[in-house]
Amino acid sequence: MKLSFSSEDEQFRQEIATWLQDNLCGKYEPLRFRGGPGDEHMFPEERKRWEQHMAQAGWLCVGWPKEHGGRALSINQQVIFYEEYARAGGPGLAGHIGAGLTGPTLIAFGTEEQKQRFLPGIINGTEYWCQGYSEPSAGSDLANVSTKAVLGTAADGHTQQWRINGQKVWTSLAHESDWCFVIARTEPGSQGHKGLSFLLVPMDQPGIEVRPIEQITGTSEFNEVFFDDAVTDANNIVGQPGDGWKIAMALLGFERGVSTLGQQMAFQNELDEIIRIAKNNGAAEEPTIRQRIADAWMGLRIMRYNSLRMLSGPQDGTLQKEAMIYKLFWTDWHSNLGKLAMDVLGPESEIIEEGQYGLSRLQSMYLFSRSDTIYGGTNEIQRNIIAERALGMPKEPKGAV
């Protein structure tokens, strides 16, 4: 596990830090530190314009191969990019699902036609994606997916289309997205991991309805999505029919890649803010608060070292053992950080400013962190994954249905 960077890497660090300093200012200054988890409702159109500004300078999808428009940065330089972006207060990227999930998945498994059609819109910041995995009865366990897709003749009587019926839930940024990658059951009568396919579905069509789900923060970052005879072209399937589970698992491997270091820098920004307030209001004088701050700092270091260990392996979508523990660790850590923030704020934590969204950054972080242990796979499911897939233990017994 490499813990240091070469002189060439440090020169690159200076390059991206300087670019951010020179560009994340003026009309983009209000976007600094905005648009992250729990704050996605802030400045959505302005953040899209910022992403397009980044794209013009070649700073989106920096790890993609050059033949697909990326910079082909080394793992070390990708780590540096995400760290410096978060350090500078770079706003949350509305296109992160396309850049971090859809794009790498298409590069690994897509046809040349699919790459030519979909990758430019992602790398230019002009097309946005959402993830159609979870369902009311298939949250953390994708094997229960019941959304169905049937291949048949399109209305023109000549071409073939997939016709999709079902429901997805907790679909982040569906209301901002142009496309959705959907796990659907394409083999009638199939169960579990078998008979699933990975489809690319346009969101702007009569057969799709997006309903916002109001969160505890009062905002609606995620949604329910209903498919009622929604359609997509026959060639908008990634891999072969039945490959859906394999591709879905590879996508989760990409999800726990270099961007995790950027996530940790965002966590560091939150911790720094908590420490600043604790020093200013005297909370840091309390021994228990000081100890909790120290514990948070140590947890963040452990997170970083595990990520560097995780990134020392192949970046091909393989879900390594180090990656399997990451989500469980950071969700508990971040939930505890939210509680620490409220205790440091003291009585001020219960005061909300006037306005539509009167929550401060730390208040929003605390409320949103309540969902950390649920979305993306509950802690209970994460422990099962660790036990069964990482440690090779027997599968959890299931009761009779």
Strands, helices and their partners?
Layout: H1 7-23, H2 44-56, H3 75-87, H4 96-109, H5 112-123, E1 129-132, E2 148-153, E3 160-172, E4 179-185, E5 196-202, E6 208-212, E7 222-233, E8 237-238, H6 244-255, H7 259-281, H8 287-311, H9 321-324, H10 326-345, H11 361-369, H12 379-390
Parallel strand pairs: 1-4
Antiparallel strand pairs: 2-3, 3-7, 4-5, 5-8, 6-7
Q: Roughly what fraction of the amino acids lie in strands? A: 5-15%
Structural class: alpha+beta
Task: Give helix % range.
Answer: 40-55%
**What is the string of helix and strand elements?**
HHHHHEEEEEEEEHHHHHHH
- The number of helices is 12
Strand order of the largest sheet: 1-4-5-8
The total strand number stands at 8
At CATH's second level, what is the architecture of the largest domain?
Up-down Bundle
Low-pLDDT residue intervals, each spanning 5 or more residues = none
Give the distance, in angstroms, between the N- and C-terminal Cα atoms: 46 Å
* Average pLDDT number: 89
By CATH, the superfamily of the largest domain comes out as Butyryl-CoA Dehydrogenase, subunit A, domain 3
